[in-house]
Write a structure and sequence with these properties.
The protein is an alpha/beta fold. The chain has 3 domains: about 80 residues, Tetratricopeptide repeat domain (Serine Threonine Protein Phosphatase 5, Tetratricopeptide repeat); about 180 residues, Rossmann fold, CATH 3.40.50; about 180 residues, Rossmann fold, CATH 3.40.50. It contains 27 helices and 13 strands. Strands 3-2-1-4-5-6-7 form a 7-stranded parallel beta sheet, with helices on one face. A 6-stranded parallel beta sheet has the order 10-9-8-11-12-13, sandwiched between helices. Helix 16 links the parallel strand 2 and strand 3. Helix 1 runs antiparallel to helix 2, helix 5 packs antiparallel against helix 6 and helix 5 packs parallel to helix 7.
Length: about 625
């Protein structure tokens, strides 16, 4: 290649680095016109296309660059980056491996190969990729941080903390590393330490995902009030919603109150995940004569996704789209009611809603607190989770209460059979909890210890993947020992390998004990489906009442306590009556199947009635 072309390319690279994308594109196109076999020019053009999110054009450019110069590892790496961004993880891994064949020391390829493998569930392979980097560069902060994050997700908390601490030494001012440490301590049940690390991270840089993590963790903290949690959500909105509201445009939707409505569901969980299961039960039951259903998915699909996609009138894949482009798509689809399903949980796209792409916006399902956003009009709930007059001041949204429970479940056809209470054979009662340990505060451990002391001879079985971590186990046993409960009465199990195993383990429980303040939801439902009554303590916020809603609407009102002492009394009273436990166990599944919680058509009609109520309110504002 003539030297002038190389010099021109370098100039284009400098423009690209400075963010002068139009000039860089002009340079790349000029080079291609003069030197059509110049692979580097196609690579530059591809990176410009990637930056402006024209991913198809970027793929074409990188493929052309590879054809022209297949020995350039960077071209394969850049192609892999596009595939990873767009959720094509298998293709991404293949491209990174092609780059590494050419250059085994390509740090970018190794780093991103690990990310693609981790995101596709190949966690040990991901660890191997990142450890290859550390073999060459022991102080590579990104590899250390990635391993810390990976091991946390695998429940190997001590290793997670060790790698994250090493990363912190290398990059002391990187907030994501502090956030990873916070998340690890959270999974270890050390909520107070986790909150401190989240706040340290936010003091360095107020990144949305870190603030989201803090908000979620605050709902686990028994020291803070619902009002304080609400105030933190408003701070999030001030930082990340308010700057975007200038982009809100007038809505021109037809204001006819009774016409067929376009309802859009926005979620990162249209996949094999708890909220995906919820939507699988809801989507097919919508009345298509009155509602047209759009689904906006913003995480990569899995094998479960087609089941959901089959029940949408229109499906929009937002993976790789910016928030602004996603909002433009929703507006172009003329969505009347946009229902956001994640709240401040991982992978959310709340800043799409900040642009108000639909005239009516609601939050439902995925998060047990307010969004804090003024652009979200409604929160869908029920009268047990949010009793009238109790919690309205904890929301930026207007509450819309569904009759009965605001969640819909079904009794799965493949559930294991219900077995008799283990106390019949054991001669003692086994209490238990399969909740995420992040929910189990010191308050809860002390409460459970008092339950055990009120029920002589009883045992407690806890199950969570973090219980494979020796430090976590030791901390829990030490807490019970402080309360006068010996380790011989506590059994700690790691995460079940399969959902079937998780369900069958309920056969070892006589009574389930709920956590506080953040209650179990799906774990509560799982226990009841297996005939296990759940004792729960009602608080003053949605996150410490949603379990109560399931228990009460499932016919176990007598298991809902309104005070700490009542919780202990209910649990101890049940423990003394094994015959009653046997009767409950024998009939609970059939009772649940007949309850409104499992009335799918009735639930969706109520949900649609709430949508119509929201819509008519907007029409009346004209």
């Amino acid at each position: 290649m003539p030297d002038p072309a190389i010099e021109t390319l370098k100039a284009g690279e400098r423009m690209f680095a400075a963010g002068q994308l139009q000039h860089a594109e002009q340079v790349a196109r000029g080079l291609i016109q003069r030197h059509p076999q110049f692979g580097e020019a196609y690579d530059l053009l591809g990176r410009v296309a990637e930056r402006v999110r024209d991913f198809n054009a970027a793929i074409d450019c990188f493929r052309r660059a590879i054809i022209l110069n297949p020995a350039r590892s960077a071209f394969h790496t850049h192609l892999g980056n596009i595939f990873r961004t767009t959720g094509k993880l298998g293709e991404a891994a293949a491209a990174y491996r092609a780059a590494l064949k050419l250059d085994p020391d390509d740090i970018e390829a190794l780093t991103n190969l690990g990310i693609a493998l981790a995101n596709s569930g190949q966690k040990e392979e991901a660890a191997t990729a990142w450890k290859r980097i550390l073999d060459r560069h022991p102080a590579d902060g990104e590899a250390l941080a990635n391993l810390g994050n990976l091991y946390r997700g695998m429940g190997r908390i001590a290793e997670s903390i060790a790698f994250s601490e090493r990363a912190r030494v290398v990059m002391p001012s990187e907030p994501a590393i502090l956030s990873n440490l916070a998340f690890a301590y959270e999974q270890q049940g050390q909520i107070y330490k986790a909150i401190d690390f989240y706040r340290q991270a936010l003091a360095i840089a107020p990144r949305p995902f870190i603030y989201d993590n803090l908000l979620m963790t605050l709902t686990f903290d028994d020291r803070v009030t619902p009002e304080e949690v609400f105030a933190e959500h408003l701070k999030w909105a001030e930082l990340f919603e308010a700057p975007l509201t200038s982009q809100i445009l007038a809505h021109e939707n037809d204001r006819s109150p009774d016409r067929r409505l376009r309802v859009g569901y926005l979620s990162p969980d249209f996949r094999e995940q708890v909220n995906g299961y919820h939507m699988e039960r809801i989507l097919p039951l919508h009345d298509r004569a009155h509602f047209e259903i759009f689904c906006y998915a913003h995480t990569p699909a899995d094998d479960f996704t087609p089941k959901l996609r089959a029940h949408a009138d229109e499906w929009r894949d937002l993976v790789g789209k910016s928030d602004a482009d996603a909002a433009a798509q929703i507006r172009a689809d003329k969505i009347d009611i946009l229902v956001e399903l994640a709240g401040h949980t991982g992978g959310n796209r709340l800043r799409i809603l900040a642009r108000k792409p639909a005239p009516v916006q609601a939050h439902y399902l995925g998060y047990l607190a307010t969004t804090g956003m003024r652009t979200v009009d409604y929160r869908i709930t029920d009268a047990v989770a949010d009793p009238p007059g109790m919690t309205e001041h904890e929301y930026a949204e207007t509450l819309v209460r569904l009759p009965g429970c605001c969640l819909h479940y079904a009794i799965s056809d493949d559930l294991p059979p219900v077995v008799p209470p283990p106390a019949v054979q054991n001669g003692y009662v086994t209490f238990g909890s399969f909740n995420n340990l992040a929910k189990v505060t010191r308050f809860t451990y002390v409460l459970w210890a008092d339950v055990l002391k009120a029920a002589p001879g009883s045992r407690l079985l806890l199950k969570h993947r973090s219980l494979g971590d020796p430090v976590t186990r030791d901390n829990i046993l030490a807490t019970f020992k402080e309360q006068g409960v010996g380790a011989d009465r506590i059994e700690l199990l790691e995460f079940a390998r399969t959902r079937r195993e998780h369900q069958e383990l309920h056969g070892r429980l006589d009574i389930a004990l709920d956590s506080f303040p953040y209650q179990g939801v799906n774990t509560t439902w799982d226990a009841m489906c297996m005939g296990v009554p759940v004792v729960t303590l009602a608080g003053r916020a949605h996150w410490c009442r949603m379990g109560c809603s399931l228990v009460a609407n499932g016919g176990l009102e007598f298991c809902v306590a309104n005070s700490r002492d009542e919780y202990i009394r209910i649990a101890a009273t049940l423990a003394r009556d094994v015959d009653r436990l046997a009767r409950l166990r024998a009939n609970m599944r059939q009772h649940l199947a007949r309850s409104p919680i499992c009335d799918g058509p009735g639930f969706v009609r109520n949900l649609e009635a709430s949508y119509r109520q929201m819509w008519k309110a907007w029409c009346g504002k004209a």
